[in-house]
């Protein structure tokens, strides 16, 4: 079996620690080297694409839920009119995970922008309509999703 | 945009410039500089400890000094002269801080704004309160240091801003300090964001919806109060370092930074010195009760601020203008949002 990206990085980190670090004379350079090793350890080298695709799929679901909520009342349709095209566009079938990373990443950026706008509008809506439990719950679900990422 | 190479300056030319700089400011023969090297991982300043020898005859002696210089691409911007004047004002107060000797405000001598400080004895260690105990204090010593940190913060906050002359150095915030700080860090997010940061934007919305009332009294806020920024000598605090983010503001600003969930492992000692112990000690010594909702705002803002600073580092790293590697900020940004909705 081929070594995974994570296995390669683990090997590189070991060489940096066991071979390179003892030969580095400057405190400053040793600190930078320690940071390099730490950053290499923080990245999910094997599954970044899978996570990105999964996150995009989750946002697609939120877009659908938000569109349903908006379309359920004329007042909401008026207040969220500017967002509806984006919400509709984002409700596409689950994307194919074999698409290149750049495609998923570009989609993620567009979705992030959409979700920022949506949650801003929802927060304003909740302030003005404190009895609208549906809006508060949708806002809470989206925030909790993003708070779990990372 | 113009790219600058990361700072990889060697000590030799800098050593000569330091000798010339000091020589123009002291009496007593040629200045000899030795032992110059760059230390630490400071994101906002370069730190270069060295020894300098000057004086005539029997008065010739060695001085332990530190050059602090702005990096080429700082993650925080601050006025060097403000920090220099603040350190001067603190000399006559009970707050232990390094003595600032000279400033190169415009960077005429050292390429970038810099100042030279007296180097205090001791060590600063980010993990000083953790199990690894890098300063060898032992558990009782660590608990004692943790309590001393709380007393030190109260000492900073109890300074009379007018008597100490701080209001002539630091600008009082024009509005509610919470609102001003949020506005400032949002503007920084606007500058640094290269792609939408949904967690930070959502956290910012929460912060805007949960602004606390202004404090009864403006205090000196250190702005980066934590174990990593105290110099410990023989088990006691020798000096509080890194004043570049100091400002006049709300005491809960420092409290939120210190007690933010993100820092729990570094700032407290499980089972022996918890956040609740720190807050009880602070309230007793400071003489006022900390309002939980206001503290939560400042804790969330602290994490938000840290994420924005990290974003700045990521940008500098990607553009090749910094020599510190940085991972994406998603983790810290998520923690800022999680702290808000918890």
UniProtKB/TrEMBL annotation, chain A:
It comes from the Bacteria. It comes from Arthrobacter hankyongi. This is Uncharacterized protein.
Automatic annotation (TrEMBL), chain B:
Pfam families: APH (PF01636). CDD domains: ACAD10_11_N-like. Signal peptide: none annotated. Residues 64-287 form the Aminoglycoside phosphotransferase domain. SUPFAM superfamilies: Protein kinase-like (PK-like). This is Phosphotransferase family protein. It comes from Arthrobacter hankyongi. The lineage of its organism: Bacteria, Bacillati, Actinomycetota, Actinomycetes, Micrococcales.
